[in-house]
Amino acid sequence: MVIVLQPSTFDSNLYVNPKCKPSPVLIPVIDLTESDAKTQIVKACEEFGFFKVINHGVRPDLLSQLEQEAIKFFALPHSLKDKASPPDPFGYGTKRIGPNGDVGWLEYILLNANLCLGSHKTTAVFRHTPAIFREAVEEYMKEMKRMSSKVLEMVEEELKIEPKEKLSHLVKVKESDSCLRMNHYPEKEKTPVKKEIGFGEHTDPQLISLLRSNDSEGLQICVKDGTWVDVTPDHSSFFVLVGDTLQVMTNGRFKSVKHRVVTSTKRSRISMIYFAGPPLSEKIAPLSCLVPKQDDCLYNEFTWSQYKLSAYKTKLGDYRLGLFEKRPPFSLSNEFKTFYDAKFGRKKLPEEDSNKDQPDDGSSNGDVNTNSSQVTNSAQDGNTGLANGNVIREKPKKSMFPPFDSAETRTLAESLSRDIIRGNPNIKWESIKGLENAKKLLKEAVVMPIKYPTYFNGLLTPWKGILLFGPPGTGKTMLAKAVATECNTTFFNISASSVVSKWRGDSEKLIRVLFDLARHHAPSTIFLDEIDAIISQRGGEGRSEHEASRRLKTELLIQMDGLQKTNELVFVLAATNLPWELDAAMLRRLEKRILVPLPDPEARRGMFEMLLPSQPGDEPLPHDVLVEKSEGYSGSDIRILCKEAAMQPLRRTLAILEDREDVVPEEELPKIGPILPEDIDRALSNTRPSAHLHAHLYDKFNDDYGSQILK
């Protein structure tokens, strides 16, 4: 049996789940009394991680009684309810809901499945209520234990799990860490125009959860394609949700389901969730009967108490299982190995050149040419013989990685190695039109200390931090590539995605490892593109900031300070379009702050002559007009303008071809005509500058903080 659920009409850009075209979603409805219920349960867990249960054996009068008693408790004066708060974690609690805590609030009761083990806060829950409330809670939790055990027994039987009761035993034993939560979403003062997120998207950490609510809507689940669907409420049935622990024990065969609650009605909502969890000391790992080979396990072993503790330390919507997943081994690409050995590896001995035409015997991975010198890419040790019988006698100049204190740190270093620029970007200073001041300052700050190191010591120690700032599209990244080309240093091209990790604590480690690698391969340049995305102003008055973001920024500032105390030539070159967003402490460490302005007339003329050269025999192009009418255009804007002009003759050619009924063979296609002066006029009317309105902000920042023009 299935029920059809329609996709949710709720849409919010606060969530990044992909949306798909609306289509009915079939949610399984499983009758526990049917003979094939176990097969249906396994199929539902694999497909949705969620299903509806009917004929469950729980008395309707018990459900009604418990709901009524819960409503009576939540209707008590706050002075009485507060005696059971704050939860420890059991007891009574309240919480603001919504992404910013502005949608409303909920109140809840959290109770240990074994009420005898409850704290004094648990006792306080029943202190001002009739005994019937406690009796109803106790009977309800017995029924939930029975139902959760039955569902897990059916899973065991269908999957042929050995030993028997491997799963169900975990929720049957007295030590089971199961709990019951009753949520109350009070009536809203006014009905919202559209549905708003109340309780954010999340998965449950336990084995399974048994959910029941009154007839108020609000529950949504996320299906495989990322669509959120509304779950039609049914006060007489239960919904079963697969939890993270069951996902691990089935090695990912079952998926814990993402769900959330939205608010769209003035009616209050009551829900009761029984979380069936294992004992705190229980070791959680993929079951050996489901994963014969240890190498096929997707998760490391952990105890339920460890996982529970990690869940409390993370945000509601975080992917908690990531901390316990086995990471695939990292393998360096042949491209990087070739690049590395070309730059730092063993050099080929002169006598080997005489046999360079001999066939390869497999003892090396091949040769590359760098700066006209042949370099052998070999991973062999110093006693390995080559095809010609010679022996490599020279030791490697540097190891690929510095010594690290753990394999985890080395893995992070290997991932960062992808951001080393491999090969020459081939951007020369003369390729960049204009920006003479920026080029002079960059040469003085980066190129000269490498070229003439004798002069740069003591007070003249090279600047370790350089900031390129200016409007978008003015050539900041081009200047960085020119530095990589001209300086021949190890160049780390870093963006926010390179150093921000979903793993807790890894972002700070990535920053530290990045600077360790840069010092190891000195002289080196770390280019931080769009640095405002990494270290904007830290939290202060009127600002909120996640702890992980603050730790990353602090580590970056510490590492920047460390560069001042080392003799290795490591430069930090940063670029941003929003210099005023940078933290003041980072501005202090970026000692040289260079404005990359909009191009002046001479620079614009050079760009137009390079992109739109006048062809012999054709009508000369009005470069003077272009220079005059492109005031305020950035380098990127000028390129778009030239592209638009070049499209005009192509459009004329395509119009002729489209009018023909027959298909023209490729070899008979006509040539594109020349660019005409009127094409320039049309291109000017079709394009607009993108950054000129904010140019004065960069000038003001340059007056306040910038390195001024060299005389």
Summarize the structure.
The chain is an alpha+beta fold. It folds into four domains: 323 residues, Jelly Rolls (Sandwich); 73 residues, no CATH class; 182 residues, Rossmann fold (3-Layer(aba) Sandwich), CATH 3.40.50.300; 89 residues, Orthogonal Bundle (Helicase, Ruva Protein, domain 3). Helices cover 34% and strands 16% of the residues.
Sum up the structure in keywords:
five-stranded parallel β-sheet; nucleotide-binding; 21 helices; 4 domains; P-loop_NTPase; disordered N terminus; about 700 residues; about 35% helix; Rossmann fold; 22 strands; alpha+beta; gibberellin 2beta-dioxygenase; cytoplasm
- The CATH class of the largest domain, by name, is Mainly Beta
Please tell me the overall pLDDT: 79
Alpha carbon gyration radius: 33 Å
The dominant shape is: elongated
Helix-strand category: alpha+beta
Count of separate structural domains: 4
Total number of β-strand segments? 22
Q: Unreliable runs, pLDDT <50, ≥5 residues?
A: 1-23, 346-396
Strand order of the largest sheet: 1-2-3-11-8-13-6-5-4
Percent helix, as a range, is 25-40%
Biased composition (Polar residues): 361-387
Organism: Arabidopsis arenosa (Sand rock-cress)
Subcellular location: Cytoplasm, Cytoskeleton, Spindle pole
Enzyme class: oxidoreductase
